[in-house]
Amino acid sequence: MSNLGTIVGVDVGGTFTDLFYFDEAQGRFRTNKVPSNRGDEAVGFLDGLKGFGEIEGLDSIVHGTTVGTNALLERKGAKVGLITTEGFRDVLEMRRRDRRHTWGLWGDFVPVVERDFRMEVAERTLADGTMRAEVDVAAVRAAAEKLRAMGAEALAIVFVNAFANPQNEEKAVAAARAVWHNENVACSTQILPEIREFERTSTTVLNAYLQPVVGSYLGKLEKALEGENFAGRFHIVQSNGGVMSTETARRLPARTALSGPAAGVIAAAAIAEAAGFPNVITGDLGGTSFDVSLIADGKAALAAQTTIDFGLVIRTPMIEITTIGAGGGSIAHVDAGGLLQVGPESAGSRPGPVCYGQGNTRPTLTDANVVLGRINADRPIGGKLARLDVEAAKKAIEEHVAKPLGLGVMEAAEAIVRIADSRMAGAIRLMSIERGHDPQKFAAVPFGGGGALHVSALIKDVGLKAALVPRYPGVTSALGCVIADIRHDQVQTLNIFLDGIDIEAVGTRMVEEADKARAVVEDARLSMERIDTLFELDMHYVGQTHTVRVTLPARVEGGKSDVSAEMIRNAFETAYQASFSRLLPGVPVRIVNLRTSAIGIRPSFDLKALSAPTDTTVSSATTGTRQVWFDGGWHDTTIYARLELPEGCEIQGPAILEQPDATTVVSPEFRARVDLYGNVIVERKA
Length: 686
Known about the structure:
The chain is α+β, with helices and mostly antiparallel strands. The protein has five domains: 6-72 and 215-256, ATPase, nucleotide binding domain (Nucleotidyltransferase, domain 5), CATH 3.30.420.40; 79-183, no CATH class; 291-434, no CATH class; 485-601, Dna Ligase, domain 1, CATH 3.30.1490; 611-684, no CATH class. It is built from 17 helices and 37 strands. The strands form ten sheets. Strands 13, 14, 15, 20, 23, 24, 33, 36 and 37 form a nine-stranded mixed β-sheet that branches. The chain has a six-stranded mixed β-sheet with strand order 3-2-1-4-11-12, sandwiched between helices. The chain has a four-stranded parallel β-sheet with strand order 6-5-9-10, with helices on both faces. It is globular, with a radius of gyration of 26 Å. 50% of the residues are buried. The model has no long low-confidence stretch (mean pLDDT 90).
């Protein structure tokens, strides 16, 4: 394993770039927050890194990015061409026979690959891997040339049943590469060698859709770092909460789809568990989106697949996160029906909220918080702006919200915040109540630049027991980049019966898969304590459609596996019993997929390094008072320098806690206390 060194976590959001510097050998850390530069993120990226000194002196940079997420949500990926088996041209539109509006016969869906860009060729592989018809290589070449002439920037090749035998796809890729104009050519067995044609097609196509976007983005960053003589390792956070190399990210950009939010969840889980809150709901409020995830018993839920937006299914392990377009830059407007809406359109970092004075004239959630006095206009976060323009924000709210609704400016500003609060609460209910969790047993962990502004409302609207605001909420995702383990997941379809299983062949396959996964993790060359290899099987009773995820307690040592048929059966029955409270004796069992994960365990980060001071007092941390609008009226509110509040202190609302990377709002009916890790615990008054 590599030596300890200096590592910087960088989370580039739509509005701000957050950074967390950590010297692993000395245990020292520093933070930084700078405005993002939408369209040329390398500018903000380098500005933030330079805040820690010479970039060439850094050993590692781990980056959490929202580029993939934004490209999917905004439909701004590459023009993709698809070559597939005859008769399977419309798999992307058929999906799983779902509808955007479940109970209506209306609504539309436009796949990321237009129908004219989907070409069929003659080939056929059977489900057992038997080759019925070899691929027509000339037809593949002709289709690729036609798609290239039509303007396709990336090419995806997906043949039915290729998971059972990749031979035809491999021949097609070779033929297509001979006439294609760039490196953006991939087939489904390179992306997801797994049964089920829709999920495999969707994942492969979306990977191609992101490849030029993510590749270009990483290329710019790497070139910028080279210009600063950076010779260390540059890594990307995956949607599963692990870290991968930029080489892997270029090849598998679909795994970056929820990169930035996943890093935040990893950090929030570690912080909450250390603070004694194993059950939490995280809420990352940035400039563009609000990302919610649930952590039960200290563990984030990992889903086999995620739907980024309707019809956009990516089947790769991801931390379960719900994303809505409600961020600090979300634009407030009155729709044609006379209803106030907030988002999903965002002002981002360019031009940003009206109060930034960069040309925007439409009010945002940030403008509303500034007008209400909850954000200090004289001390904006990010460091680039000297002051926020309150009057411009008031004027925008008056013109676009107050007058159309017949409200005063202050009432309109509060209405904007309440609408945003309601949307955030809805996202939290989706992850908790609608999945059978009692919110009264959970605490909120709000982070991002704006999460702590809405902490009191989230507790009240959802019925949460408390909220835990991290020491540095604005850079929590950047901290997650630093502490995240290195991880590589892969899947291989087996499609075999448990009865009469060739256990030696399965064991050999497990050894091969483990070696491949470990090699990817070892190549990261980051400091690790060890590498753990985990195995899971997707299994079901014959006749069933859906599978059960089965954790297999198998180990691979010395080139051999200790897996046995009895081990597999016991693990399946345990998992099935837990899910359905019964078994189906006598019904044959099928093993569908083998999933292998290699996890490089990073050195533990001592969260007590974030602790609050013990030699200060509440009075010394008090910076004054100002009028802040709560529940229809002005309240004289005490302002505190949050980072100077001593460990163990308790303050009563209304209060505003200010720090360079975020602002925490404690409403009149709430109180706050500081724990030994420097977190602020917000609770209802007794």
